[in-house]
Write a structure and sequence with these properties.
By secondary structure, the chain is mainly alpha-helical. It contains six helices and no strands. The radius of gyration is 17 Å and the shape is elongated.
Amino acid sequence: MTNSMTKPPVWFWIVSIVALIWNGLGVMAYLARAYATDEMIAAMPEEQQAEFLAEHPAWYTAAFAIAVFAGVLGSLALLLRKKWAHPLFVLSALGAIVQHFYLFTNVEMTAGKIVMPVLVILVCVFLVFFAKNAKAKEWIS
């Protein structure tokens, strides 16, 4: 069995590493939210305390978890040059879209607060197309 993968350019590796760091920060944000103690929340500024104390439905939390963990696995798949990076990024993007749909429809956001959720969705969509392109160019298989 032969492996017909084409050697990817240097920027492929740069994007893949940046994607891993980005998604790793997402996992850290999820874990910080999921495991924040009362003492940790009390030490935050009041505005952040309100965000951490807000009740969200279980499906929101599940979408958040799916988005960040699928993103990390997709990034690792890119670095390992595996084609399953694409479906993992699709799953991550779907999780992020569901999560942020809830925020956009149920949480009052100022113009400054909407930037990060929009950026998250844009990065997710970019990574879906990046992995699809990498698969088409046989950088991953």
